[in-house]
Input
Amino acid sequence: MRIAIRHIATRLALILGAAAILPLLAYGFVSLWSLERSTRTSVAMGNQNVAARAANELERYVSSHVDILKALGSDLQETGLLSWQQDRIVKNYILQFREFREITLFDERGTTVATSRIGSPRVTVPRDGTLSVNGVIVSPIQVDDDLLPTMTFAVRLERLNTPSGWLIGEMSLEEMWRMVDQIRIGEQGFALVVGPAGTLVAHGDPNKKNLVAQSRNMATHPLRSPAPLAPGTPTWREYLNESGQETLGVAATIPTLGWTVIVEQATAQAYANALVLRRLLMVAIAAALLTMVIIGWVFGRRFIAPIFTLEGATHAIAAGKLDTRVAIETGDEFQRLGESFNAMANRLVELQEDVKRQERHAMFGRVAAGLVHDLSHPIQNIGNSTRLLLREGLDAESREVFRRTIDRELNTLKRFMDDLRNVVKPKPVERFPLDVNQSVADVLDSMRGEGERAGVIVEALYGNGPLTIDGDRFALGRVYRNLIMNAIQATAPSGRVSVLTSRVGDQVEVVVADTGSGIPAERLPAIFDEFVTTKRRGLGLGLAICKRIVEQLDGTITVESEVGRGTTFTMRFPALNAVPAQAAS
Output
C-alpha cells in the first residue's frame, strides 16, 4: 500500500510538473529551432551582402579601367595627331594609370602605331575574344612571369564608321588581389574569385595564394557544381572544405566578367554567437525544467502528505489501536476527510464497547440459563430422593434406588463443576504408554447402562492390539465418556452407537459414530467452540474440553455429520511401540 501511495505521489508530481514543463519545453524547442534557423539565415545573408558588395566593387574596378581605355581610344582617333603624338599620349596614360602595364595602338593591318613599351609590344590583336565588357573584348586571366594575374582589353577603333585599328591594354590585377585580401569576415572568413572557366583568380587566405599561381581549377567547388551560378543569383551552402572543416560559403556573380566571388567562413565561427546563445538558452531551459520538477515534486509530496497520514492511521486502526487520530489542517477536502476519519474512529470505539457489553450480557445469559437448566434437574432429583428416604416404613429396595439416584445426580453435578473448572483452569495431562483398546473398553463398560436406559445399542470394534499411545487414562476417559454420552443422547431408541479403534500408518485412530439426528452443516465449523451446543441442555463445554485434551496429547479430532443419518467423531494420536504400563504390571 505504501509503495502504491508513493507511486501516486510520483505520478501527481509528474502531472503537476508536466503541466508547467511541457509548454516550457515546447517553447524552448521552438525557440531553439527558430533561433538556429534564423541565425543561419541571418549569418548567411550577411555574408552574402559582403560577397555582393565585393562583386560590385570588382566589377566597378574593371569597368572603370575599361572606360579609361575607351576614353584613350577616343583621344587617339582625333584627326591631325601624328604618330609621335599618339605615342606620347599612350606613355602618359601608362604613367597616370599604373594598373596598365602596357598600352599599344595597332592600325587595321596590325602594325604597331604607338606603344607604351620600349621595344616591341607584348600584346597582340585579339583573334577570338568572346567576352565583351561595354563593347570591349576581354581576354581570359593569365599569370605573367612574376606569377601575377593580368588581363588584356581590346578596344575596336573606328573612323567614320569604318574600322581603323585596335587599342590594346594589358592590365595588372594585383590591385584586385589587394581588394580581395581586404574582404575579411571574422578571423577565419576569406574571399576568393573564380573565373568563367573555373580558374582561381584571387584568394584572400594568405595560406592559399599559391593556388592562384598553380591556376587551380575550382569548377568542382560546391558553389559552382553541379552547374555554375546564374548571373546575379547569390546563394549559400554549408559544406566541408578541402581541409575537412565545416564551412559556410556564399557566392555572388559578376555577370559582365563571368566571375564568381565566394566568401567562406568556418561554421564554428560563423555561428559562434548563436551557439553561445543556444547554450545559454538550453541552460536556462534545463534550469527552469529542473526548478519546475523540484517544485512539482515538493508540492506533490506536500499535497499527498495527508494521504500518507490517513494510510498510517488506517493501519493503526486495523492493528487494534482504536485511539489513533489524525491531525490534518489543510483547510480543504483532506481536512474534512481527516475529521470524518476521526469521527469514524470514535464511532468504532463506541461500537466496540457496545459489542463487548452485549457479548458480556449474552454470555452471562447463556451461562446463567445453562446453569439453571443443567443444575435444576439433578438438584430436584436429589431433593426428591432425600425426602423419600426420610419416610418411615420405606423398604430396603426402594431405599437403595433412591440412594443410587442421589449418587448419580451428585456425579452429574461433579462432572458439571469439573467442566466449568477446566474452562477456567485446564488440568495438565500426565503422559504414559496407554493401550487404547483397554482404555476404550473400560469406559464402554460403564456406559452400556446409559445406552440400555435410552434404548440405544452401544458396541465396540477393536483393532489388532496392542494399540499404544502416549496418553492420560483419566483425561482420555473423560473424552470417551463425553463423546459416547453425546452420541447416546442424539440417537433415538433402537439406534446404534459404535466405537472403533485401529492402526492407521504411524497413528492410532479412535472413531465414535452414531445413527442419530446429525448436525446441520452450517453448525459444524463452530462445534468445538466453547459455549456452543446443539442440545437443549448444557453450556456447550463438553466438545471444547474434548478438543483441548486431544490436542494436549498431540492428537487431532474431526467431525463428519449428515442430518438424519448420524455423526462421526474421529480422533488420531501418534502411535508408540512401547508396552503400556498396565500390561507390563
Notes: Residues 1-5 have pLDDT under 50 and may be disordered. The CA atoms of residues 73 and 266 lie 46 Å apart. DSSP finds twelve helices and 20 strands in the chain. The longest helix spans residues 2-76.
